[in-house]
Design brief:
This protein is mostly beta strands. It has 2 domains: about 100 residues, Immunoglobulin-like (Sandwich); about 140 residues, no CATH class. Strands 9, 10, 15, 17, 18 and 19 form a 6-stranded antiparallel β-sheet that branches. Strands 2-8-7-4-5 form a 5-stranded mixed β-sheet. Helix content is about 15%, strand content about 40%. It has 3 helices and 19 strands.
């Protein structure tokens, strides 16, 4: 009986030693995985979005890895169908992809399109990212696109305290400060207290409201359905907007659910002469 207890104690100690030795061991370092990112900015789609049928778009990626990237693939799936390979670079050997631009076009029919990007190495380590595009189908009439006035000059809204026009009506043209407020879809909103520090800010005087447009909107919003959905999916509407160069803004004109898309091409601030101005191009639903 004593021998049995003694052997049991030895077995228990041996088991305890086993657990102790495992607790003091080191964990294996996991293999590094590739880094994959979408390129942001005004020209590229970097998040899920809605587009109308037959609309061109761009998705840009960058990638890097501690080891070599040996494969880069892009697949497309439409309405849950089997993935179709649209790019297969399985013979590469590089530690970084500084920039790759995928130029795509949505299909002709309403539905869901998923574009999946995968970078991998020879050891089976990979990183995957995808963008889902909701195809809205037929977009209706194309928007009118205006990039300069009838004299070939750029569109500008000037500082209201200077000698030039400080307001604009979409589809019609420059509006003087003394014109009826009903014409002022856009007006420079500098106050007396801000004359020495021009704020580059727009407001309206006729019920027009503003939203910041999603990245890439200027190139992808081309028709009535597209601009209406872009407005619905954008953030909160405001009556004032702090204007930034390179940014696009959606406008609900006069609050009548007729829309415009304005892209800011230049913000020019000058010293002590009230000749500051904001330069822009725009698209709009024709009346």
């Amino acid at each position: 009986m004593k021998n049995i207890k003694f052997l049991s104690l030895i077995a228990l100690l041996a088991t305890g030693s086993f657990f102790l030795s495992n607790c003091t061991g080191t964990e294996e370092t996991p293999d590094p995985t590739p880094v994959l990112n979408f390129i942001g900015g005004p020209d590229f789609q970097s998040e899920d979005l809605s587009l109308t049928a037959n609309t061109a778009f761009q998705i840009g990626i960058t990638a890097s890895h501690e080891k070599n990237i040996t494969s880069f693939t892009i697949t497309q799936s439409v309405d849950g169908s089997t993935d179709v390979v649209v790019l297969d670079s399985s013979d590469i050997k590089t530690k970084s992809i500084s920039e790759y631009i995928y130029n795509g076009t949505t299909g002709p029919n309403e539905g869901t399109e998923i574009y999946t990007f995968v970078v991998s190495d020879n050891d089976g380590n990979s990183t995957t990212k995808a963008i889902t595009i909701t195809n809205l189908g037929d977009g209706g009439s194309n928007l009118a696109v205006l990039t300069e006035d009838n004299d070939g000059d750029p569109f500008r809204v000037w500082n209201v305290y200077g000698p030039n026009t400080g307001a604009y009506e979409i589809g019609f043209g420059d509006v003087s400060t003394s014109s009826p407020n009903t014409e002022k879809d856009i007006q420079d909103s500098t106050t007396v207290d801000e004359i020495t520090a021009w704020p580059a800010r727009w407001s309206s005087r006729n019920g027009t409201t503003y939203k910041v447009a999603p990245a890439g909107a200027w190139s992808t919003v081309t028709n009535e359905r597209g601009i209406e959905v872009a407005w619905d999916e954008a953030g909160e509407a405001t009556t004032f907007v702090d204007v930034e160069e390179g940014t696009s803004y959606l406008l609900n004109l006069k609050g009548a659910n007729r829309y415009a898309l304005v892209e800011i091409t230049k913000v020019e601030s000058t010293d002590d002469d009230n000749l500051d101005y904001i330069e822009f191009i725009y698209k709009y639903e024709q009346f």
